[in-house]
Amino acid sequence: MRYIMKLSKTTLELLKNYATINTNLLVKEGSSLSTVSASKSILAKGTIEESFPQEFAIYDLNQFLSLVTMSDDTEIEFSDEYLTCKSGAGRFKFYYAEPSIIVAAPDKEIELDNFYQFNITKEQLNTIYRAASVISAPTLSVVSNTGGVTMSVGDPNTPKSNSFTTDIGQANVQFDARLSIENLKVIADDYEVTVSQKKAFKFSNSKRTYFLALEPSSNI
């Protein structure tokens, strides 16, 4: 049976985000997409509006995205060994990779404690990204000292380094959670953020979830 689908803009956005985490991708049958970085420091899980008809592996996700975005009318037709990207301009045949060579996300569920939780908006996250870029900050820090909780980007190991800080709430616990900016590969959106004593951040909303490993220097 022939199966033809067209990827939505939100699905393409998610795939482009995943390509920054890992250029390999194992696509499972259904509407869930997951990926993990080669270092295992980033795990991302998302739900899309389409449903893939079968499992297949992509070795070079950026190449795949280039093919499916060459034309606005591109449709994907699935075969046993390859998929075909079809548009008015012509057809690309894209062969699946061997699943055994793909760094794929684990199937097991990740359980984290809810040591501290706060909400972050799309606008706040975009501001963090811009500030980190402007001052070339290596680290995102979420810190609770005497009740107030702040989120900042800068270099906590260099006292006189440039930084940007914003207040995010209150807490009756003390902690210093540090994340490498290189691991902050989260689509800008509204999220509930969990700080875990397992030295991890969890960014979660109804569409996607990211698990981000914190720096060893974090104190939680």
Gist of the model:
By secondary structure, this protein is α+β, with helices and mostly antiparallel strands. 15% of the residues lie in helices and 41% in strands. The chain has helices at 9-21, 61-68, 122-134, and strands at 3-5, 25-27, 30-36, 42-52, 56-58, 75-78, 82-87, 90-95, 116-120, 139-144, 148-154, 164-170, 175-180, 191-196, 200-204, 208-213.
Task: Please explain how this structure is put together.
It is a single chain. 15% of the residues lie in helices and 41% in strands. With 220 residues, it is α+β, with helices and mostly antiparallel strands. The longest helix has 13 residues, at 9-21. The mean pLDDT is 94.
Write the layout of secondary structure elements.
Blueprint: E1 3-5, H1 9-21, E2 25-27, E3 30-36, E4 42-52, E5 56-58, H2 61-68, E6 75-78, E7 82-87, E8 90-95, E9 116-120, H3 122-134, E10 139-144, E11 148-154, E12 164-170, E13 175-180, E14 191-196, E15 200-204, E16 208-213
Antiparallel strand pairs: 1-6, 2-5, 3-4, 4-16, 6-7, 7-8, 9-14, 10-11, 10-13, 11-12, 14-15, 15-16
